[in-house]
Amino acid sequence: MTTTIIVVNSDKCKASGECTKVCPQRAISIKSGKAIIDYDKCDSDGICVPACPQGAIELTKPDKKGG
Ligand code: SF4
Q1: pTM recorded for the entire structure
Q2: 6 pocket-lining for ligand 1 (C-beta < 6 Å)
Q3: Nearest CA to ligand 1 atom 6
Q4: Which ligand 1 atom is at minimum distance from the Cα of 51?
Q5: Average confidence (pLDDT) over 1-26
Q6: What is the pLDDT at residue 62?
Q7: What residue segments make up the domains of the chain, in order of their start?
Q8: Which of 16, 3, 14, 9 is nearest to 61 (CA)?
Q9: Whether the CB of 42 sits within 6 Å of ligand 1
Q10: pLDDT digits (tens, 9 = 90+) for 23-65
Q11: CATH fold for the domain made of 5-60
Q12: Distance between CA 27 and CA 20 in Å, rounded?
């Protein structure tokens, strides 16, 4: 029941598109030079996080105690 949200730091994002290649759900697209996540598709697996050369994608866990 862990709530995990993927967020793109638009200040860091250079629109390299690496995240769009690795996402199994095809949830990421590049729009106006920034990566945009389609939360209807994203299943928060976190695969895109290490794929970003800029470290612009982060997993946030609002409920850290839920483990
Ligand atoms: S967390 Fe997984 S499903 Fe969501 S955008 Fe990243 S790679 Fe795609």
Answers
A1: 0.85
A2: yes
A3: 48
A4: 7
A5: 94
A6: 73
A7: 5-60
A8: 3
A9: yes
A10: 999 999 999 999 999 999 999 999 999 999 999 999 998 765 6
A11: Alpha-Beta Plaits (3.30.70)
A12: 7
